[in-house]
Each structure stands twice: as structure tokens, then as C-alpha cells.
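Sample A.
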Amino acid sequence: MLVYFGYTYCPDVCPTTLSDIGAALRTLPDSQRSQFQIGMVTVDPRRDSGPRLRSYLSHFFNPRQAVAYRPATPAQLRTAESTFGASSKIDKHKPGASYAVTHTALTYAVDHSGKVRLIWTFGSQSPAIAADMRHLLKNDKAAS
């Protein structure tokens, strides 16, 4: 599973990252692509409803391959973030005004046992991501 912490109102980092991951996946044969699932944890659950998250992810991925996670409480979000070493903070804003969320811009590749096998930073290019995905699958088969 590829895990990403982001939000649907993000103007730049999130759509760029998800686009790069989607492009990498599209270069893989169906048999390899189907072995990956994408999980996006929203860091803005107040604005990101379940339907909005699913619609957003469908712009980048096959809907059967992408899963949206919407923490029900701030404590659940903090627990998920701390598990990965991620963080987020809603920027100061006036009540009712639009706002941004500062968040970790990393994507985590997690294996079947729940171990983070690889981390991509913001700006990782899709050819490199695709090469890493093929490597992860090769190592996964070797370990089996």
C-alpha cells in the first residue's frame, strides 16, 4: 500500500504527488499495477468528506485501487501521523475564511506486514517511482 497524508483543497503538493504516483502506476503492466493500493489519509477531515475524497482520488487512480481515510477525531489523525512520523497543522485563518494545511509531503510504501519499505519525497519523478515499485514487487516475490 502507498500511504499519503494530504487534503483535497491542497493547491500544489497533493495533486502533483498523486499525479506522479498515478503516472508511475500507469507505466506498470496490469499484473504489477494491481498489486498496489493507494491510501490517502486526509489531514483536513472538516472539509474533506468521504464523497469528496473518493471523487478527488478518482482523478488520479482507478477507484477500486484507491482508499480514502478520514479520521473521525483529531486524536485519530495524530495517531495515524505519529505511526508514520508525519505531521500536519491547519494554518491560522479567520473564521469562515479559506485556509491551507501545512503537512508532511512524503509517500510511504508499506508492505503486507505493515513495515514501511520505502519513502518518496515530494518531487520524486514518476519514472523513479515506477522503478522503485518494480523493485518492491521483485523483493516481495523473493521474500515469499
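Sample B.
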Amino acid sequence: MTSPAYPDSVCDVVWEPHQFSWTQAGKSDRLTDLGAIAKAVDITLAASRGKIKDPTGGALHYYAHEQVKPYWSSHGYRLVVGEHTFVRLVGRSV
């Protein structure tokens, strides 16, 4: 899903300041769980190409609910998948 509020490439979004804690903490960006990564890429590509329904309902935001609670996390429709909560904001800009 694209949004005029964010950069045009996935890499630019990931490396935008304060988007992901691991990019700020000096942690390794080495991929280790290749099976999980392949599954995530397959689902993302299928949803972005309209081959499957977006399971998040159009969410542009998500967070690891056991680790952080962003100020915007209670505004909108939420879907919990494993350790993450996906949020489609309603009537708010972040």
C-alpha cells in the first residue's frame, strides 16, 4: 500500500528516523529466519498485487505490543497477529 505521507520505497521507509527501533539501536540488520522472511515477502507481494485481500484492512502502522505503546496505538481499527498489532488510523494523521 502506498501513502503520500511516506517515502516511495520500502527501504526508505524502514530507514526513516524513528520508524523501527532496531535501526536506531545499532543492532544487526542481518536476516536470520529465512523461512519467516520468505513467507512475509510472499504475503506482502500477493496483497500489494491484489491477489489476496490485505489481512490488515489497510493498516499503515504496526508495533510490537509487548515492547512499545505508540501514542497513536488506540486510534483506529486494530488487528493483532502474533506479537504485533496492526493499526488502520481513523481520522488522525501521524
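B remarks: The longest strand covers residues 77-81. The mean pLDDT is 83.
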